[in-house]
Structure formats: structure tokens, C-alpha cells
Structure to design on (924 residues):
């Protein structure tokens, strides 16, 4: 593990970006496969093979292109490009705030894609996605702030090098981040906008009018995003790579566990509980850090 | 110095011409075009001349001018009394009486002994302001040429006073140049009062009940600011005999704290910060060019200009903390209120107050990084906001409504205009563009200075993203079937302005490293003695992102629009058999219509409740600010 990290760190800026761009879909795909397997087991099913998400994506690429708005896929392309870009920035060790802003930009394009088709289900999905974005955005910024307060740097590379595990200083921020991570992973109880489960009341939400290759791109973008988010969790434990790796994966599986144990929230509860949790856990942590320094 | 005087006097001359020349002749338009081009060119000339020079101060024989100004002030006071009594409103009369009493006593007791060494000056900040006033202000004046005739077609009941309107617009620009170039506080005060009366008259242009109401509200609040301003400078002169901006900044903090707080108060009123936000939201009854002018290049920017000038005096005092908090509260509260608004102009107005709140908060913190981001915010906000106002002004007459809910399918009805509007909105909140660059820097400045403010920023930004994105989503949604394209109805004067401002929005984003190195860093060097360490790597990333977006987006549009023909187009899924695009066959063969509406969350982010809370907090903070300054 240590040697892998050393090799990774010895790479240049573009090398590290390239590693992310190439590797992330595989890791993300496997994570998605594990997710489905685990979910199935929790529900007493056998579940598909772990490689299934890759087959699904390949199959989707072979489907007919059906669109409502000629330009609807422009937004999906931009969503994909900017998600990959923010992930690449993160894994190259660049500014974490830039990563966060760039990820928000990608999310905005996704939402606009949902709006532009003019379909009621997709519209509602986009509105809900937007509400979710408003719900998680403050906490994501607080994560960057907290890490800066502890390590004195916004650079991911320097944050990862910090001698002590960040979790010791940022337990509240981590808890808050865990809360909104459920939104970002699109897991229940926060899968209002798009749900992987078949029991969504607004058809397929934001992605109702997207099919075939576009849907495959959305899926792959989601893999990229998941890898980035797992990477952000890793930062909290980066002092010890093994512990970090295991706990980051553990967090992912914890979210799957949550997913299978909760009913979907309404948007009101989603928004205000996230804001409240951000305030109680995140803000108090930040203020304590400021006070003791 | 000639360029400075020219910029102040020239618009004045144009204003007089605009009032004198008969309407609807070609000569008028020709003069307007030439004047506007001149107003763009001269600030650029100033920029080139002073690019690598420090601040320059100029002496001017000021006694005669002072007498002249006093006469005009008396005339304006008389005019305000006249219109107020005619409208049976007595608060402005009282305020004007107090103000005139203070200023006349002051002039007659100390006017002769007053020593003013340098009346005019120019530094990098003044040049930035002059560029904004010159370029954006004159672009708006161009727009007005096309807009005002249409305005009167739609509002037959309003008396056509377009000469009077043009006169006020140019007078306003002249006063703005006056504020940013004056070093003498008496002069700043003089021009300050002119912007007050101009804005009130422009707001009341329609002359119906509602606009008269708004007009007097703006007048009352700004006159109150003016009275406090007057008290501040009289106090300053009595205690220190100083009447100049640069000398004021060099005095001991304890002596000048109170005057600086008074002047900052006047700035808060002009910048429409809580508790004074209602004059700006009321101002939307005015014709669009007025709103655009008030919100982007003049009035509110004069407010933050003077606050930023006063910020070094307040540094590290409790008063500065209060200033910072007022800005922060205004930012957060108005961003949240904007979520619940469906009137396009009101959303824009609240967004303006919100962004100005951020600038005021930066001034309160007054570290290098904070001032740096405040200046960037001023620039980016001015360009993008004026563009948005002008777009909404056109949409209002083409659709017959300024309600965001009526802007469905705008991209099919006014495609080019929607594209321009998207650029403006992107400039306001989308990641690599202007405002977000400054927010990024602001966030970093806040974290170092005061994490509480950074937390406010985190929540406020989330709200900002929400209300902009849902509006954006509204205008880009489509509906199948024929929709009437009404773009040809937009006049070419309006198009020219929109193109200028759209290009400017993109340009300032791309040029921001140069703006930063060339203009802002030298100013910070003058002010703080050092410049903030530029994060070159991040600059490059942001630059690449903008460039990438500017390249990928058109390529994508081209590809999906013209190259890729391999797709099948269908109607939307409506949960039943589609009858046409907005109705479907539901259960029991019923025909069900569909409609798309945005979330406004009135129950949670309603205007009245949040505004009341905000005003309450802000008034308390204001009292504390004065309290700590007096003691």
C-alpha cells in the first residue's frame, strides 16, 4: 500500500490526472457492482455478478439515441467532462476548494439537462436535485474549510501529507460530511431526484428523458464522482494509508447499509435536516478549531 | 487632470444638450452615440496614462467652485422642498432643512478658513470605477435610446418626458465621475447629493402612485444618509480641520473614527444594505435602464466605493466588525429571500443587495485578500448584473410579463436573447465565471479572518445557486410544436448594448488575471504596502476551465445541432397517452393538462418574515456601530 502511494506521489501532475481518468471508471464500476451485490444480499436476493454494471453500460451504448430536446445531451457531456475534471484536480493534489466548485459546476449542468427537456417528471427531478444541492453545498465547503484550518493548506497533496489523522481534529465535520455523503451517493433516504430503486414516484426523476448512450455516460460519470467522494473520505484518515483505505471503503459500505434501511425523505426534511446537521456538527467543529488556535 | 474634469463636465454638457434638443431627431441620436463612445474611451485613456503611475493629486482653484456648488445645493434643497410639499410629504422637507442648516452654517462659519490642497485625485480604484461608470453607464444610455420609445408605446398613460429622462441619466453619470475623482470631502458630498436626487427623480419617472411612493422612499433614506454624511464631515472639520480624503486616512484612528462611521453609514444606505434595502427593491417600478444603472454602475456602487475608501480608518475596530456583520447578514438574508421571489426584477434586486453585502463584509474585514476580492466583485457584478437587467427589460415587453413563471420556453421564443441572458447568469454564479472567482477568493479571505463569515458565505452561496439555477432551467426548457419567434421585434440599439455587455462579461472573466496584476495589485500595494501572494497555479486552472468551457460548449452545440443526425426525436413521457405536448390522456379517457412550476418555498423563505428579522438584526448592529464610534 505504502509503495503504491509512493509510486503515485512520484508521478507528475498530469501523470496523476491520467491515472485517475483511466482507473476511476474501473474502480467506480466495481464499487457499483459491489453495491448491487451487497444490496441484494441484504434484501435476501443473490444479486448480479460484480461485473454487471460494466455490461449494463456497454449495452446502453448500443441502444438507439432517443431525445426530446436536440441539445439535451450537451449538458450531459459537460456534466461528465467537469466531473472528471474535478476528480482529476483532486487526485492530482490541487486545491480542494477548486475541486468542490468544479464539482458543483458539473452538478449544475446535470440539473440543467433535467430542466431543458421540459418533461414534468424530469422537471420535478431537477428541482429536487437542486434542493439537494442546496442542502449539501454548505457542508462540502465546510469540509474544505476544516481541512484548511487543521493543515494550513487547501492543497489536497499537502492535506494528505499531514502527520496526524484529520479525523482527530474534525470529528464533527466528518459526521456532517457523512450525512451529506448519502445525498451525493444518491442513496436512500436522500434519493429524491433519481433513484436506483424501482419504487420512485416520479418515474426516473431527472433522468426520465435520457436513454441509451446518454444514460451510460450519466452512469459512468456517477462512478467517477463516487471515486472522488471516497477519495475525500480517505483524506480524513490519510495519515495511515491502510487505515484510510479501509475506512474509506467502509464508509461506502456504511452508506449502502443506510440506503437499505431508510425510507425516502421529503424535500423539506432533506433540506432542513442537512442544514441543521451541517450547523450542529460542522459549524461547531469549525468554531472550536478557531477558538483553540 | 484635464481628463478628470472632462469626465465630470462632459456628461453634464450632454445632459444639457439632451434637455434642450427636440426629441425624435437624428441629431440627438448621433450626439448620444458620439457622447457614449467618448465616455468609454476617456476612462480607457486614463487607464493607459496612469497604468504604471501611483495616485496623482490635483490642485484646483476651488473657492469659486465651492460657492457655485453651494448655490446648486441650495437650489436642489429648494427643489426637493417644492416637490415634497407638492406631493404632501413632509419628511424629506425636514431632512433637507436639517441638512441645509448644517451645511450653510458650516459654510458660513468655516468656509472661508477651509484649506483644501487637492480637490481631485486619481488612483487605480478610481480608474476601475471610472471604467465601470463610463463603459457600462454609456452602454445603458445606448439601450435607453431603443427602450424609451417602446416604453411609451406600452405605457400610454405615462407622459413622454424622454428629454428629461436623458438629462437625468447623463447628470447621474457626471455625478458618479465626480464622486470617484474627488478628494475634497465637500465635493464628494456635493456629488453624493446629486446622485440622491437624480435617482429619486428617475425612480419616479412614471409618476403614478406606486412610483411616487418608491421615489420618496429612496429620497427619504438617501437624504437620511446625506444628513449623517454632513454631520460626519462637519465633525471632522471641527476636530481636525481636515477636509480631504487622503489626509483623513493618515489621521489617528481614534479622532476620525466617528466621521468615518458616519460616511460609511451613508454608504450603507446607498448600497441598499439592510435595514435600507427597501428603496432598491422599490426602485424596480422605474424604466429598465434606470434599474440597470442603479444596480450595476452607479448609486449602489457609489455606496460600496465610499465604504471601501473608509475601511482603512475602521480597521480592527468594533465598528469594522459591525460593518462586516451588516454585510454578512444582508448577504445571507437577501440570498434566502431571493429564493421565494418570482418577479424577475425583484430576484435581480435581491441578488444585487446580496452581492453588495459581500463587498461590504470584505470592506469590514479589510485584509489584502478581502479588498482584492471586493474589487473583483465590484467589476464582475457590474457587468453581469447590467446585462441581466437589460435582458429582463426586453423580455418584459415581448412576453408582457416580468414573472419568471411566464418565461417557459423562452429559448424557443427569443433564442439569441436567452443565450445572452445565460451568459449573464453564468457570470453571476456558474463556477469558472466572474462572481464565483471572487467568491472563491472571498471565501479564502473570510476563513483566515473570521470563520463565522465563511460559514455565512457557505450557506448564502448554496441559496444563490438555487435561485439562479431554477431560473436558468425555466428559460432553457422546451416544448414541442411551433412557437412564435419574436426576436425581430427587439430594437438594434438594445441588441448593440446586449452584445457589448455579453462580450464584456466573458472578457472580464478571461482578463481577470490581467485586471488583477495590472490594476488591483498596484492599488493594494499603495494601500497595504505589500501585495497578496498570487496563487498562480489556481489562476491557471481557472483560466483553463473558462477556456475549456468556451471551447467545449460551442463544439458540443455544433455537434448535437448539425453534425449528429443519428437520433430519434420523441415527445416527453407524460404518464399516459400524449394528446399533444401539454396534455395527455389519463385514466378514464380524461384529458389532463400539464404545467411546470418552480419551487419558491414561500413558507420557509417568505419575504416579509426574513426581511423583518434581517432589518431587526441590522438596526441593532448599526446602533452598536455608532455606539462604539461615539464612545
Amino acid at each position: 500500500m505504502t509503495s503504491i502511494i509512493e509510486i503515485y506521489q512520484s508521478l507528475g501532475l498530469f501523470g496523476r490526472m491520467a491515472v485517475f481518468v483511466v482507473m476511476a471508471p474501473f474502480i467506480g464500476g466495481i464499487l457499483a457492482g459491489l453495491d448491487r451485490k451487497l444490496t441484494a444480499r441484504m434484501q435476501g436476493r443473490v444479486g448480479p455478478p460484480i461485473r454487471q454494471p460494466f455490461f449494463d453500460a456497454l449495452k446502453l451504448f448500443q441502444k438507439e439515441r432517443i431525445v426530446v430536446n436536440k441539445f439535451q445531451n450537451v449538458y450531459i457531456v459537460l456534466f461528465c467532462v467537469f466531473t472528471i475534471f474535478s476528480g482529476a484536480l483532486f487526485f492530482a493534489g490541487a486545491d480542494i476548494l477548486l475541486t468542490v466548485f468544479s464539482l458543483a459546476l458539473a452538478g449544475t449542468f446535470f440539473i440543467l439537462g433535467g430542466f431543458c427537456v421540459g418533461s414534468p417528471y424530469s422537471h420535478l427531478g431537477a428541482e429536487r436535485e437542486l434542493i439537494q444541492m442546496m442542502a449539501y453545498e454548505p457542508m462540502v465547503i465546510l469540509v474544505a474549510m476544516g481541512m484548511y484550518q487543521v493543515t494550513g493548506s487547501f492543497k489536497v497533496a499537502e492535506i494528505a501529507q499531514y502527520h496526524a489523522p484529520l479525523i482527530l481534529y474534525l470529528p464533527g465535520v466528518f459526521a456532517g460530511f457523512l450525512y451529506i455523503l448519502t445525498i451525493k451517493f444518491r442513496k436512500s433516504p436522500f434519493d429524491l431526484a433519481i433513484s436506483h430503486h424501482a419504487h420512485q414516484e416520479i418515474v426516473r426523476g431527472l433522468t426520465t428523458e435520457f436513454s441509451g448512450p446518454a444514460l451510460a455516460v450519466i452512469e459512468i460519470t456517477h462512478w467517477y464522482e463516487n471515486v472522488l467522494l471516497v477519495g475525500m473520505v480517505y483524506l480524513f484518515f490519510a495519515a495511515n494509508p491502510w487505515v484510510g483505505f479501509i475506512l474509506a471503503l467502509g464508509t461506502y459500505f456504511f452508506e449502502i447499509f443506510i440506503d437499505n434501511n431508510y425510507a425516502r425523505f421529503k424535500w423539506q426534511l432533506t433540506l432542513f435536516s442537512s442544514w441543521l446537521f451541517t450547523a450542529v456538527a460542522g459549524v461547531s467543529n469549525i468554531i472550536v478549531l478557531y477558538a483553540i488556535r | 487632470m484635464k481628463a478628470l474634469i472632462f469626465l465630470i463636465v462632459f456628461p453634464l454638457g450632454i445632459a444639457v444638450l439632451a434637455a434642450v434638443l427636440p426629441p425624435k431627431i437624428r441629431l440627438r441620436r448621433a450626439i448620444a452615440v458620439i457622447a457614449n463612445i467618448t465616455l468609454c474611451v476617456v476612462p480607457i485613456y486614463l487607464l493607459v496614462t496612469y497604468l504604471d503611475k501611483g495616485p496623482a493629486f490635483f490642485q484646483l482653484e476651488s473657492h469659486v467652485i465651492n460657492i457655485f456648488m453651494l448655490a446648486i445645493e441650495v437650489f436642489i434643497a429648494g427643489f426637493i422642498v417644492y416637490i415634497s410639499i407638492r406631493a404632501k410629504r413632509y419628511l424629506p422637507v425636514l431632512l433637507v432643512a436639517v441638512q441645509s442648516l448644517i451645511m450653510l452654517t458650516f459654510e458660513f462659519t468655516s468656509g472661508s478658513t477651509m484649506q483644501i490642497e487637492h480637490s481631485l485625485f486619481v488612483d487605480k480604484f478610481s480608474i476601475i470605477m471610472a471604467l465601470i461608470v463610463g463603459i457600462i453607464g454609456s452602454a445603458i444610455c445606448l439601450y435607453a435610446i431603443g427602450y424609451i420609445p417602446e416604453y411609451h408605446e406600452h405605457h400610454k398613460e405615462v407622459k413622454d418626458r424622454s428629454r428629461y429622462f436623458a438629462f437625468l441619466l447623463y447628470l447621474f453619470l457626471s455625478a458618479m465621475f465626480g464622486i470617484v475623482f474627488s478628494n475634497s470631502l465637500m465635493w464628494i458630498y456635493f456629488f453624493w447629493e446629486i446622485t440622491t436626487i437624480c435617482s429619486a427623480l428617475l425612480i419616479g419617472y412614471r409618476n403614478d402612485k406606486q412610483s411616487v411612493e418608491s421615489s420618496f422612499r429612496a429620497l427619504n433614506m438617501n437624504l437620511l444618509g446625506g444628513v449623517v454624511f454632513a454631520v460626519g464631515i462637519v465633525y471632522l472639520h471641527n476636530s481636525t480641520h481636515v477636509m480631504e480624503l487622503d489626509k483623513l486616512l493618515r489621521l489617528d484612528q481614534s479622532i476620525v473614527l466617528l466621521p468615518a462611521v458616519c460616511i460609511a453609514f451613508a454608504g450603507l444606505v446607498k448600497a441598499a444594505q439592510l435595514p435600507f434595502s427597501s428603496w432598491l427593491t422599490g426602485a424596480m417600478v422605474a424604466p429598465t435602464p434606470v434599474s440597470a444603472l442603479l444596480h450595476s454602475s452607479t448609486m449602489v456602487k457609489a455606496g460600496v466605493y465610499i465604504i471601501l475608501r473608509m475601511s482603512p480608518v475602521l480597521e480592527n475596530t468594533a465598528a469594522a466588525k459591525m460593518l462586516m456583520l451588516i454585510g454578512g447578514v444582508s448577504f445571507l438574508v437577501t440570498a434566502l429571500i431571493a429564493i421565494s421571489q418570482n418577479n424577475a426584477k425583484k430576484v435581480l434586486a435581491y441578488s444585487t443587495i446580496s452581492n453588495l453585502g459581500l463587498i461590504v463584509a470584505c470592506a469590514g474585514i479589510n485584509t489584502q485578500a478581502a479588498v482584492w476580492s471586493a474589487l473583483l466583485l465590484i467589476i464582475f457584478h457590474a457587468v453581469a448584473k447590467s446585462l441581466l437587467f437589460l435582458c429582463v427589460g426586453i423580455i418584459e415587453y415581448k412576453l408582457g410579463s416580468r414573472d419568471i413563471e411566464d418565461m417557459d420556453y423562452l429559448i424557443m421564443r427569443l433564442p439569441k436573447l436567452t443565450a445572452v441572458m445565460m451568459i449573464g447568469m453564468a457570470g453571476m454564479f456558474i463556477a469558472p465565471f466572474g462572481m464565483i472567482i471572487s467568491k472563491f477568493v472571498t471565501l479564502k479571505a473570510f476563513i483566515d479572518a473570521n470563520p463565522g463569515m465563511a460559514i455565512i458565505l457557505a450557506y448564502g452561496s448554496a441559496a444563490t445557486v438555487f435561485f439562479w439555477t431554477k431560473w436558468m432551467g425555466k428559460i432553457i426548457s422546451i416544448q414541442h410544436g411551433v412557437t412564435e419567434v419574436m426576436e425581430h421585434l427587439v430594437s438594434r440599439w438594445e441588441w448593440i448594448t446586449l452584445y457589448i455587455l455579453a462580450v464584456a462579461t466573458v472578457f472580464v472573466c478571461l482578463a481577470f488575471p490581467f485586471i488583477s496584476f495590472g490594476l488591483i495589485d498596484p492599488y493594494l500595494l499603495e494601500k497595504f504596502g505589500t501585495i497578496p501572494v498570487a496563487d498562480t497555479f489556481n489562476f491557471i486552472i481557472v483560466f483553463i476551465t473558462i477556456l475549456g468551457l468556451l471551447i467545449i460548449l460551442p463544439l458540443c452545440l455544433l455537434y448535437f445541432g448539425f453534425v449528429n443526425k443519428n437520433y430519434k426525436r420523441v415527445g416527453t413521457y407524460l404518464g399516459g397517452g400524449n394528446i399533444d405536448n401539454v396534455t395527455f390522456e389519463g385514466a378514464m379517457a380524461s384529458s389532463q393538462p400539464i404545467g411546470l412550476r418552480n419551487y419558491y418555498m414561500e413558507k420557509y423563505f417568505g419575504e416579509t418574515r426574513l426581511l423583518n428579522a434581517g432589518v431587526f438584526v441590522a438596526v441593532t448592529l448599526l446602533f452598536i456601530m455608532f455606539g462604539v464610534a461615539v464612545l
